[in-house]
Amino acid sequence: MVDTLLAMSVIPMAIFGGVLGLLISGIPFSVSAAIGFIALFGIAVMDGIIILSQYNQLIDEGFDRVRAVIRTGELQLRPVLMTCVVARRGAIARRRCRRGSDRRCKSRWRWWWSPACCWRRW
């Protein structure tokens, strides 16, 4: 139960970061932003679960708590950063696409940036 609450405790920080990102970029809250928030919550909780599972594994192996926290940071920094980088790359690609029914990228030479939203239609 404690691990579940710890994994879910990242959601308020994700909300704060998401709202701050919307305010800084000047994007209004919309259906697309709500879907982005859902994805953000999933990524944040997944990263929390990755870190907690590694920490619990190290505690079971006999590490003391401080050393387990340090070792978890050393071992899980790369996977957590990779999920954040990939999620950010998708958000940048989505930002470059137009709103509305026309989903092509603004600059045609960037068609490779995100195949999900920038199909070559020309």
Short description:
The protein is mainly α and 122 residues long. It is 69% helix and 0% strand.
What would you note in describing this structure?
- This protein has one domain.
- By secondary structure, the protein is mostly helical.
- The protein is elongated and about 50 Å long.
- The longest helix is centred in the middle third of the chain and has 32 residues.
- The protein has 4 helices and no strands.
- It is 69% helix and 0% strand.
Our count of helices gives 4
Strand content: under 5%
What would you call the structural class?
mainly alpha
Poorly predicted sequence stretches spanning 5 or more consecutive residues:
109-114, 117-122
Amino- and carboxy-terminal Cα gap: 54 Å
Largest sheet: none
* Helix-strand string: HHHH
Which secondary structure elements does this structure contain, and how are they paired or packed?
Blueprint: H1 2-8, H2 11-25, H3 31-60, H4 65-96
Helix pairs in contact: 1-3, 2-3, 3-4
Structural key phrases:
about 120 residues, mainly alpha, about 0% strand, elongated
